[in-house]
Amino acid sequence: MLIYFVITSSYNPGCLHCHTTEKNNRNTPLFDNVVKSFIEVLKQTDAYTQKSNGFTFVFHVGELLPVKEESILRVCETIKENMPDVKVKFLLQMPLTLINESVITLIKDCFDGSVNIPFDQEIRQTNISYPRFKFLWEKNVKYLREKGIHVTVNVALVGDTGRCISRFRSVVTYLKSLGIRDIHIEKFFLQGEFEKSKTLYIKDSEYFTFMNYLLDWYIEYLINWYRGRKTREDVIIINPLVQMLYLARFNRGASCFAGDCMRNILTLDCNGNVYPCPAFLFSERKVSFGNVLKNNAEEILSNPKRVQLIIEQALLGCDGCEYVSFCHQGCPKQPFEITDRTVCRKFFKKLIDYSKRYKHIVDCLLGTF
Ligand code: SF4
Ligand code: SF4
Binning pLDDT at 50, 70 and 90, where does residue 24 land? Predict the structure, then answer.
């Protein structure tokens, strides 16, 4: 199960896509009592009682400035102490504008030496010029790598980066030149400040057209990688494509924009509110399942809004589509606006075909052989 912690709602740069720029920035860190109460909720989930795949906690921290590193360390320790029977893993997502020795120590101590950082050149807002920002970004990436930190880069699919495959490939080449092997692509919603940047927004039909090209290119890349008998350390991982290949290969799992996310993801806001995924925070579609300081586990997990979202994701629309068990009709936060559903079906058909035809490569990639 994937758990997002919005550890503070105070952020510095004010990027175009940021949820918080449209609302008040509450400088509230995540407190111990909130975490402990949330753990009691998690203990009632199927993932906990069945001790299935464990829990991955993603710390969505914005800048670390408003939150002391010790607070994050304490949250991780509280989780480990109070959830001893299940496998827990911690991931850190941060914007990489402030990095220093104590952040490096935190990443090493709590996050297995790994961090996720964004690469969102067209939507990043800073109070310095873009070339200066890029210089600092590269400097920080190199610094992290010198310190032995594993860096995953989240690439924003906006503007040409989400429309033009050669432009995207040039981003991959650039990241590879910095030693980055793990890339996560992110599609954004038309919300917050991003509403004003409609030319940058990737429509659903554009997204699937892009994903079709990307899948072809990535499979060709994987075939060459496999033939070259290189190691898993050499391969470029592009998610959620790899997560989707896993879904197609094993018929289980979850990933953003494909998969059963409503059952598999919960978000804890620093004020104790529980949401389906971070995309629902601050959105016009306010879907809080309750507050861990006021509601018990049963009230939160069986909240009618949660049940409704799970049903919606499983049942509504897309009648008769054979790929519904993979796709779950995409994102419940912002349902697809595709009128011609051949483009999405073509993508899922291709995904399943590839996962069968090249299952030896997919298994090698996933380390499951
Ligand atoms: S609700 Fe949408 S954005 Fe959130 S995990 Fe599901 S598909 Fe992704
Ligand atoms: S029609 Fe498209 S969006 Fe709907 S389930 Fe099928 S692939 Fe998914």
Answer: very low
What pLDDT, on the 0 to 100 scale, is given for residue 339? 73
Q: What pLDDT was estimated at residue 193?
A: 65
Q: What pLDDT is stored for residue 22 in this prediction?
A: 42
Q: 0.90 cut: is pTM over it?
A: no
Per-chain mean pLDDT for the chain: 82
Strand order in the sheet with 265-269: 237-239, 182-187, 150-157, 114-119, 88-93, 55-60, 2-6, 265-269, 274-275
Across 342-365, b (16+ Cβ under 10 Å) vs e yields ebbbebbebbbebbeebeebbebb
Instruction: Using the predicted structure, report yes or no on whether residue 17 has a pLDDT greater than 70.
Output: no
Distance 315 CA to ligand 1 centre (A): 16
191 Cα to the center of ligand 1, angstroms: 14
More confident residue, 91 or 16: 91
Q: Whose CA is nearest to atom 5 of ligand 2?
A: 324
Task: State the sign of the Cα–Cα–Cα–Cα dihedral 51, 55, 251, 275.
Answer: positive
Q: For ligand 2, what atom is nearest to the CA of residue 327?
A: 8
Whether 186 shows a pLDDT value over 80: the answer reads yes
Ligand 2, residues 341, 346, 351, 352: which to mutate, most atoms within 8 A of Cβ?
341
Alpha helices in 50-123 (DSSP H): 69-82, 101-110
C-alpha dihedral sign at 79, 151, 195, 341 = negative
Q: Rg of the chain over CA atoms, in angstroms?
A: 20
- Copy the structure tokens of residue 205: 């039909």
CB atoms closer than 10 angstroms to residue 48: 18
Q: Which pairing describes strands 237-239 and 254-255: parallel, antiparallel, or unpaired? A: unpaired
φ/ψ of residue 298, rounded to 5: -60, -45
Burial class (CB in 10 A: 0-12, 13-18, 19+), 279: buried
DSSP assignment string, 293-353: TTS-HHHHHT-HHHHHHHHHHHHSSSTT-TTHHHHTTS-SSS----S-THHHHHHHHHHHH
